[in-house]
Amino acid sequence: MDDLDKGILELLQSGDFCIPQNTKIAGKLGKPISTVRERIRRLEGDSVLKYTPLLDFSKLGWKTLSVIAIKVQQKADVQKMVDELKQIEGVQEVYWAEGEWNLYIKVRTRDEKGLQELEASKLLNIDGIREFRVARISKILGEGMGLPF
């Protein structure tokens, strides 16, 4: 994979360059292409419809998926923590949750060693992290499972 491949994937993930196949959608729904095209434009304009490709990260060399739960210290600067977490290579998503564990991060690393390095050299150096637990995902059972209605 060269810089051009990486650039293409980054642009596709930004959502600006994925295009729906209006003809196929119209055919499946039994509607005119013009109607489907107009509806898609409206959904895009209302920011309801955004595009992100589903990448196979294991084929890109990122074989280990983990979710890390973090307990945040009482007076921690959470925004600063989040900014630091987002700068760590492999961190894909950061969530705030109510309860005992406050931050959850979705992380991809190339292997177990990469995950251990992330724990030891990155997470332990972020001010405000009181404690963390790592759950290595062994199998994805459902992802992008559809509309909630």
Structural overview:
It is built from five helices and four strands, in the order H-H-H-E-H-E-E-H-E. Strands 2-3-1-4 form a four-stranded antiparallel β-sheet. It has helices spanning 3-14, 22-29, 33-45, 78-86, 112-122; strands spanning 64-72, 91-96, 103-109, 129-137. It is elongated, with a radius of gyration of 19 Å. It folds into two domains: 3-45, Arc Repressor Mutant, subunit A; 57-137, Alpha-Beta Plaits, CATH 3.30.70.920. With 149 residues, it is of the alpha+beta class. The model has no long low-confidence stretch (mean pLDDT 88). Strand 2 (91-96) and strand 3 (103-109) form a beta hairpin.
Q: If you compute it from the alpha carbons, what radius of gyration comes out, rounded to the nearest whole angstrom?
A: 19 Å
Query: Which class do the helix and strand fractions yield?
Result: alpha+beta
Return the domain count. Answer: 2
The N- to C-terminal Cα distance equals 39 Å
CATH architecture of the largest domain: 2-Layer Sandwich
Overall pLDDT level:
88
Might you state the CATH topology name of the largest domain?
Alpha-Beta Plaits
CATH 4th-level superfamily of the largest domain: Lrp/AsnC effector binding domain/regulation of amino acid metabolism (RAM) domain
Task: Estimate the global geometry from the Cα principal axes.
Answer: elongated
Which strand-content bin applies to the residues? 15-25%
- Roughly what percent helix? 25-40%
Number of strands: 4
Number of helices: 5
The side-by-side strand order for the widest beta sheet comes to 2-3-1-4
Q: What string gives the helices and strands in order?
A: HHHEHEEHE
Oligomer: single chain
